[in-house]
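Below is a filled-in request sheet from our internal design queue. Each sheet records the structural input a requester submitted and the sequence that came back. We keep these sheets so that new team members can see what a complete request looks like end to end.

REQUESTER: design group, bay 2
PRIORITY: normal
MODE: inverse folding
CHAIN LENGTH: 461
BACKBONE (tokenized):
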């Protein structure tokens, strides 16, 4: 027997809700019931508790996405499961598709080494502060970067301070003595050893990361692998990712070749050689590189945040490794798993067409301004009419708010957000900040615009 769902709505949205449900051809039966209020966004759980006298034999109740109040209290009172639907009615099909399966993003296989590249110039306190920041963003190992021909007298002190604070630590240098010092100080990993410097592995217990003697010399890497395997030592292999136009494509081929030759060895990829040295948004690069890691079972990456454009690279890598893990474990494409890597665009930025917004506007009978976007541009309307443009400055003379500074400021902020969303292809929802996925430092806390917003300016449906 199929589930029966009760959808609660307002008068303005009732017709559209019925049309969407009919088009969905769902595998459940349903009843649409409007509670006698005009706009669904004004609904509260207390109002539902007062006005809903018949649950229509429902097994579950879906409230409008903007319904305010405690859903759990309402569910207890009605004796039925109650949940909020999507904020936009057009998202109902996707809402029910997602509800069918929730991906577990707590799982991942890739370990992130976050490099502090300027460690020789930082104090112990500064390194610990940076390490905690990287750890919050997903780093598993803090990598202490050494610089060529640069004194590093407090290397041992840094390693020991990080270890005492509970961090896993790696030391990254091209100088044998730096690696030896770091290993003896208690580092967990050493980046990087090659065939000629394998003697360092005999002096310390740290796990070595192996690289070829030269980028193309996989034979030297094979010999280094064989030597450590003979000794029963743990190790990680890094075939070295090269920047674009300096061997990038060939280096990807090299990673594939190493995996083919050594199906069971642990491999590392230094993703910073791409994210740092390409002036493009790093979210997509991290997604692609972590996808390659997923396919080749590369379970370690070295990430950096040196360039200002790569300032979220570690957080992005953390999201990407979780998305790829979920996709791989369910044998599916990395789609509809998380939107956190969609910083500039969205899968469905414009839920309504200009024609549909025009139909909404014609039904409005109050002075409150509503702002929406469509593929065609920005739309603002109330009982006095609908105005559309692609530039907010074209709209200002038509709104008649010149004598109300607070009102004009609010509408300016919202129309500015709407223009940015329209230009980029992002979802705009009035009274809500634009979402930027994992590309921002700020958390997702929303400002309550109603605490300072002038009356008569809100999106009501």
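RETURNED SEQUENCE:
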């Amino acid at each position: 027997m199929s589930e029966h769902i009760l959808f609660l709505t307002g008068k303005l949205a009732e017709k559209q809700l019925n049309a969407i449900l009919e088009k969905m051809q769902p595998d459940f039966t349903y009843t649409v019931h409007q509670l006698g209020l005009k706009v669904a966004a004004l609904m509260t759980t207390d109002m539902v508790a007062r006005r809903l006298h018949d649950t229509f034999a429902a097994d579950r109740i879906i409230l409008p996405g903007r319904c305010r109040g405690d859903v759990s209290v309402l569910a207890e009172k009605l004796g039925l499961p109650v949940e909020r639907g999507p904020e936009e009615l057009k998202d109902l099909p996707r809402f029910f598709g997602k509800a069918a399966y929730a991906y577990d993003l707590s799982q991942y296989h890739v370990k992130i080494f976050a490099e502090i590249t300027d460690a020789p110039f930082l104090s112990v306190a500064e390194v610990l502060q940076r390490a905690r920041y990287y750890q919050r963003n997903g780093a598993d190992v803090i990598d202490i970067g050494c610089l060529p021909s640069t004194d590093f007298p407090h290397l041992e002190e840094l390693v020991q301070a990080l270890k005492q604070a509970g961090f896993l630590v790696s030391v990254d240098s091209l100088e044998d003595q730096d690696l030896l010092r770091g290993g003896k100080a208690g580092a967990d990993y050493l980046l990087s050893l090659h065939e000629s410097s394998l003697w360092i592995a005999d002096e310390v217990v740290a796990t070595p990361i192996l690289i070829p003697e030269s980028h193309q010399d996989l034979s030297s890497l094979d010999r280094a692998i064989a030597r450590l395997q003979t000794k029963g030592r743990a190790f990680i292999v890094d075939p070295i990712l090269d920047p674009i136009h300096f061997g990038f494509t060939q280096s990807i081929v090299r990673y594939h070749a190493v995996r083919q030759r050594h199906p069971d060895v642990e491999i590392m990829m230094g993703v910073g050689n791409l994210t740092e040295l390409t002036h493009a948004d790093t979210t997509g690069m991290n997604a692609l590189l972590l996808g390659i890691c997923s396919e080749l079972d590369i379970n370690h990456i070295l990430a950096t945040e040196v360039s200002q454009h790569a300032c979220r690279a570690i957080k992005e890598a953390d999201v990407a490794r979780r998305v790829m893990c979920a996709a791989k474990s369910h044998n599916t494409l990395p789609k509809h798993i998380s939107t956190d890597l969609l910083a500039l665009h969205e899968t469905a930025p414009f839920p309504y067409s200009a024609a549909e917004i025009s139909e909404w506007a014609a039904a409005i009978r109050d002075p409150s301004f509503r702002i929406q976007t469509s593929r065609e541009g920005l739309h603002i309307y109330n009982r006095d009419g609908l105005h559309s443009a692609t530039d907010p400055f074209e709209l200002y003379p038509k709104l008649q708010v010149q004598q109300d500074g607070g009102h004009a400021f609010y509408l300016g902020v919202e129309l500015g957000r709407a223009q940015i969303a329209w230009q980029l292809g992002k979802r705009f929802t009035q009274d809500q900040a634009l979402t930027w996925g994992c590309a921002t430092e700020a958390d997702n806390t929303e400002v309550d615009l109603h605490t300072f917003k002038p009356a008569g300016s809100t999106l009501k449906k």
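SHEET NOTES:
- The radius of gyration is 28 Å.
- Confidence is low (pLDDT under 50) at residues 443-461.
FILED BY: M.R.
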